[in-house]
Amino acid sequence: MEYSIRTEHLTKSFGSFLAVDHIDVSVAKGEVFGFLGANGAGKTTAIRMLCGLLAPTSGRGTVAGFDIIRESEKIRTRIGYMSQKFSLYPDLSVGQNLRLYGRLYGLGSKDLEARIREMAAFLGLEELLKRVTGSLPWGWQQRLSLACANLHRPEILFLDEPTGSVDPVSRRNFWDLIHRLSEQGTTIFITSHYMDEVEYCHRLSIMIDGRVAAMGTPRELKRDSGCATIHELFLKLVEKKPAGAAA
Amino acid sequence: MIARGRLISIARKEMRHIFRDWQTLVVVLVMPVMMMFLYGYALNADAKEIPVLIEMPSPDPETRAVADKIDASQLFAVRGVVATAADPAELFKLHNIKALIRFPPGFARDLRRPGGTRVQVLIDGSDPNLGTIIRNAAEPLLLGATLQVLGVEQPKVLDLRTLVLYNPEQSSALFFVPGLMAVILLMISALLTSVAIAREKELGTMGQLLVSPLRPLEIIVGKIIPYVFLAAVDGLLIMTVGRLAFGVKIAGNPWLLATCSLVYIFTALSIGLLISTLVKRQQHAMFAALGATMMPTVLLSGFIFPVASMPLQLQIVSHLIPATYFLEIVRGIILKGVGIHELWRPLLILSFEGMLLMAIAIRKFKVKL
Questions:
Q1: B38 and B87, same domain (yes or no)
Q2: Which residue of B has its CA nearest to A86?
Q3: Which residue in B20, B208, B214 is closest to A87 by CB distance?
Q4: In a domain, B165, yes or no
Q5: pLDDT band at A231, cuts 50/70/90?
Q6: In the prediction, which pLDDT does A140 show?
Q7: Which chain B residue shows the shortest CA-CA distance from A84?
Q8: Minimal CA–CA distance to B273: which of B194, B341, B211, B334?
Q9: Do B38 and B61 share a domain, yes or no?
Q10: Do B20 and A103 touch (CB under 8 A)?
Q11: Which domain holds residue B67?
């Protein structure tokens, strides 16, 4: 099996606080992997380590086959990252934002223009290229973020709470796009706190207090725990927490 | 290591932000010119036509002749003559005068007696500068006028000849143009860069840049380049307005001035960058930058108050401020026309400060990753 992401005992502590506590996560190529957890469970810290923005305290990991400690520069050219906050330039046009990110990732002019047309068509952004980004409605800004993160054909897309504050229809459309990207071979690593939509993931893990409390396909997780939904399982794991901490 | 393509992309993007945000552009281009005209007129220390009142109990020809001489001087304008000033304070309030010149009764008679006579000058001291000007001017003026009335040649004991070098007309423009160069270049460079980087943090775009293959140094240099240009444009603007509107000519080598200005801009950008690593919000960046640049530069660099007259503690602070050295350089080149031979020391200190601040800023910027 070819893994896009693999971690072994990946750990990050801030002083005496263990933000990420010996996690082992493996994500196969082309998989849509849901990375769940309550706020403050360590999701963002884990993602930052995988993207090479933060050095782990201990443990190891590879992303796209490169070591996250020693080869973070190589990793950065092979991943796309979309943060939970809209983080493109609102005063630039849609086209200017796309061109900027394309160039930062080293796309040549010809390739870049072809790729922008391709992404615009894929996400339905063709009519909007000349519009100022800040004037777009939320759902479209979200799509533009995805386009920017995906322009350089990354092997892996990290999506941090991409569907936060998006209406249900846009959310549904967004997941359709995610699955189409996955079918084209892109690995998707996505965090979310919408427990209904994480059932769209191929596999997922649930993080509680810096640890991976459960991992598997949605079906396996529900079957093994006897819960009807992931939502139920999540609540069960969160409630179990004090007992787990005592053990 | 810096990749040119990525660097240009960042610099071009930053240029776009600047041109999209016309308000900033107006501030950058209009504010320096406005400040020049403000300082140009406000700092004009040449007092003229100061309103005074004369108390003249006995209006004999001699007293009137002296009073006329006072009125004829450029410095004073006699607003009226009163016979008695029982309540001088009332007269100051009523006539809005700055000084009251009181001749005694029998001025003409006493003049010719051995031991002479007395004249009292009451001065409104609420504006200390003006008070000093009146005090310094009153005695020679009155003495000269009285001697002239008496037809007495002033005995020649000492022939004092002063010659003012470098700024012979004592024009205040020559004094404030270098000062404004120091203030404006520092403000534009430090303020705009720190705000620009804080804005990226606020927007979350900084995180997006950091996960891209961009290296921190490329972000820093790419973002700084447009502001170097803006600051340079401002420097040219100040020199041009200074020359056209205030007649300030550069006595020394303009290229040396340009080079030193670039070193100063670099130092100012380092301050801006350092501030941006310490704050997360644009507003904080703005206040920090203004506090760190505007105030110390105006008050402590020697722009308005001479460094030599400051208490020791403030002199120490003054010698830490880049503007102090830049001011020395600019005044040296514009007024005295001196070259690198005389200016290598402040230039060296300025460069050293710039490099030190930049090194700290880059280090802190990386750690913040």
A1: no
A2: B204
A3: B208
A4: no
A5: confident
A6: 85
A7: B204
A8: B194
A9: no
A10: no
A11: 50-150
Q: Is B213 on the interface with A (CB under 8 A)?
A: yes
Alpha-carbon gap, residue B182 to B176, rounded angstroms:
10
Domain boundary among B85, B120, B150: B150
- Which CATH number is associated with domain A3-86+156-246? 3.40.50.300
Of the candidates A89, A100, A104, which has its C-beta nearest B213's C-beta? A104
Residues of A in contact with B211 (CB under 8 A): 51-53, 76, 79, 81
- Report, as an integer, the average pLDDT of A80-99: 89
Mutation to test the A interface, candidates B13, B208, B215, B368, most A Cβ within 10 Å: B208
**How far apart are the CA of B10 and the nearest CA of chain A, in angstroms?**
8
B163 assigned to some structural domain? no
pLDDT at A93 over 50: yes
Number of H helices, E strands in chain A: 8, 11
Could you tell me if B97 and B217 lie in one domain? no
A89, A92, A104 ranked by CB distance to B6: nearest: A104
Three-state DSSP class for B78? strand
Give residue-wise pLDDT tens across range B60-115.
Answer: 888 888 889 888 888 899 998 888 888 888 888 888 899 999 999 888 888 888 88
The set of residues, in sequence order, having a beta carbon less than 8 Å from that of B305 and lying 6+ positions away, is B299
CATH number of the domain to which B58 belongs: 3.40.1710.10
**Longest pairwise C-alpha distance within chain B:** 95
Number of domains in chain B: 2
pLDDT, position A31: 94
Sequence ranges of the domains in chain A: 3-86+156-246
The string of pLDDT tens digits covering residues B217-275 is 899 999 999 999 999 999 999 999 999 988 888 999 999 999 999 999 999 999 999 99
Strand partners, A32: A188
Distance from CA of B212 to the nearest CA of A (A): 6
- Tell me which of A79, A87, A98 to substitute to probe the interface with B (most B C-beta atoms closer than 10 Å): A87
Q: Look at A53 and B13 and tell me if their CB atoms are within 8 Å.
A: no
Q: Rounded CA gap, B275 and B357, in Å?
A: 10
Q: Which of chain B's residues have a Cβ under 8 Å away from the Cβ of A76?
A: 211-213
Place of tokens 């934002």: A97
Average pLDDT over residues B159-178: 77
Co-location of B280 and B188 in the same domain: yes
Say yes or no for a CB contact (<8 Å) between A87 and B17.
no
Same-domain pairing of B78 and B37: no
The secondary structure element, H or E, covering residue B147 is helix B128-150
Is 70 exceeded by the pLDDT of residue B367? no
Please name the residue ranges forming H helices in chain A. 43-50, 72-78, 94-104, 109-123, 138-150, 168-183, 218-225, 230-246
Tell me whether residue B209 is in a domain.
yes
Name the residue with tokens 């993080």. Answer: A207
Same-domain pairing of B235 and B339? yes
Structure ipTM? 0.84
B201 and B72, same structural domain?
no
Whether residue B159 lies inside any domain: the answer is: no
Tens digit of each residue's pLDDT (9 = 90 or more) over B117-146: 889 999 998 888 888 888 888 888 888 888
Of A85, A91, A92, the CB nearest to B204: A85
Residues B10 and B142 in one domain: no
- Predicted pLDDT of residue A246: 40
Q: pLDDT grade, residue B369 (50/70/90)?
A: very low
